[in-house]
Structure formats: C-alpha cells, structure tokens
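Ops channel
N.P.: pipeline sanity check, posting one input/output pair.
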C-alpha cells in the first residue's frame, strides 16, 4: 500500500507498507525517515526532537546531500540544497506483495539556478522490500559540465555506540576530517570519541555489527564512504537532537565526496546506489 499523508503543518510524506516492511518518505528532500522490517527494530535512526518543518532538514533517516557534500562547494549551503527542496512523486509500483518502488524527482528552479547555475534532473528511486535500496541519478541537462559531490547520508539506529563496530574498511586510507590528516584504517572501527572520516578505495560491502544484528551496506557508483558520530560535545551543539543522542546512532554515508567527486558532461548521468540489508 502506498499512501500520501500530511501532518497538521502541511508537511507531506509517503507511507509504504508491504508484506515485509514499512517505510515513510518525506516529499521535502526525498527524505526516507523510517524503514523497518515487520516485527524488527527500525534500521534508520530518527531524532525524537527532529522538526518536520518546511524548509528545515529532518534530523535522521537518509538526508540527500546534493549537489555538494559538506562544504565541498563553499558557495552552497552545507550538504547542498536538495534536502530542503520539494520533490515530485513521478512513479509508484507494487510489483509484488513484497516489493514497493517509488520514484521522486527534483529539477532546477529559478531559485536553484540563482545558487548553482546548472539545469539538472535528480531522480531518487527507492525500493522497499526486505532490504532498502536507494538509487540517486543525476542528469546534467545543461550545456556546460558540472562538478558533483553528494551523499546518501544514512543515520543507522544502534543499541548503543559502545556496542557497535564497523567492518570492511580495514586497510583503507581515510581523511580524518577533524585533523585533516590522511591515515590508514587498522581493523574494525569502534567509537570512544568524535569520528568524522572519509574512507577511500571502498569497493566492498561494509558491515555494521551491533549486539543483536548486523546490517550490510553495499554501494555502487562510489568509491568513498563517510563514517560519522558527533560524540558528546558536538552532539550538545547540534540542532534537532538531544544531548545524548550520539549514543543511539552512527552515520555510514554512501558518498561521492572529496577526491571521489564526479564531473558530469552535458547530458551525462551518474547513479549512486546503496543497498541496506
Ligand atoms: C556529516 C559530516 O556528513 O554530516 C559532519 O561529516 C556533519 O561534519 C554531519 O556534522 C551533519 O551535518 P548537518 O549539516 O546535517 O548538521
């Protein structure tokens, strides 16, 4: 079942239920803010103090950072503008009782051209089944090339930050965004302080190992991945989350960022895909 719902303040979202899973996707930002298999804990973390306000990004779920990751393009707002724009639902399909697919798009507007002077189409295809699949396709509709950095900025719900480890990144070089140094990962990632790292040469599955479950992340169209947890001090400064929220989530972001940027020639396309199971 696919239903369009509206909060009292006019904030619209799509609710999807099939035999295996349940999901909610906001039209603002094309933002998936809930995904869970039936009778299981949610896969995605959503802040219980997050605003569902027009013009403000939801804290949690999967913000779409586009056409710039972080401050990779200093002329744009942090993480670009797509996460606070209104997207359009252009297609929905219940191919069988276990699988639901919807497609949302975002196009340039007078306002976006004022910030970033390129015509584009951005398409997000979401598949809800026993896993969550996101395919983010950028098409350059302009006559000039553009540089793209982006993220499917997934917030994962965890039992506690002290219980988890991230596997699959051992031996990979990474940029520590806190010190600006290039380092090499040695073994699994565990958390005892703020972590904000951009892993490179990532072409394999990543595992988020928690006490009672393991989540697998498989990316395509990307050779980088960001691991982020704000820890105590940054968490208390951040909008839309409680001071101790850092214990409840970790971000493992499927990205094209820093050296893994893309140049899109006129009329070229690029797809960044993540499968979370
Ligand atoms: C991460 C960055 O991708 O996003 C962090 O690596 C940043 O540095 C975080 O703090 C959250 O960003 P925002 O704009 O959603 O608060």
């Amino acid at each position: 079942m696919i239903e369009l719902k509206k909060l009292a303040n006019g904030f619209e979202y799509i609710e999807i239920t099939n035999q295996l899973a349940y999901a909610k996707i906001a039209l603002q930002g094309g933002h998936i803010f809930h995904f869970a298999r039936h009778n299981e804990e949610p896969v995605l973390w959503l802040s219980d103090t997050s605003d569902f306000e027009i013009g403000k990004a939801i804290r949690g779920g999967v913000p779409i950072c586009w056409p710039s990751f972080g401050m990779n393009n200093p002329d744009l707002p942090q993480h670009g503008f797509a996460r606070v724009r209104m997207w359009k639902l252009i297609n929905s399909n219940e191919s069988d009782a276990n699988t639901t697919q919807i497609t949302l798009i975002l196009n340039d507007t007078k306002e976006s051209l004022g910030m970033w002077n390129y015509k584009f189409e951005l398409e997000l295809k979401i598949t809800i089944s026993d896993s969550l699949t996101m395919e983010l396709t950028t098409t350059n509709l302009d006559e000039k090339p553009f540089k793209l950095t982006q993220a499917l900025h997934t917030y994962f719900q965890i039992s506690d930050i002290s219980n988890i480890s991230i596997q699959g990144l051992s031996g990979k070089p990474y940029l520590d965004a806190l010190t600006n140094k290039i380092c090499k990962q040695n073994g699994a990632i565990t958390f005892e302080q703020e972590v904000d790292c951009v892993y490179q040469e990532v072409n394999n599955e990543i595992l988020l190992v928690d006490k009672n479950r393991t989540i697998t992340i498989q990316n395509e169209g990307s050779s980088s991945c960001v691991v982020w947890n704000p820890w105590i001090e940054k968490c208390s400064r951040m909008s839309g989350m409680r001071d101790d929220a850092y214990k409840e989530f970790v971000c493992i972001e499927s990205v094209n960022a820093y050296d893994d940027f893309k140049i899109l020639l006129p009329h070229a396309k690029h797809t960044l895909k993540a499968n979370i199971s």
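N.P.: looks fine end to end. The helical segments are 110-115, 231-237.
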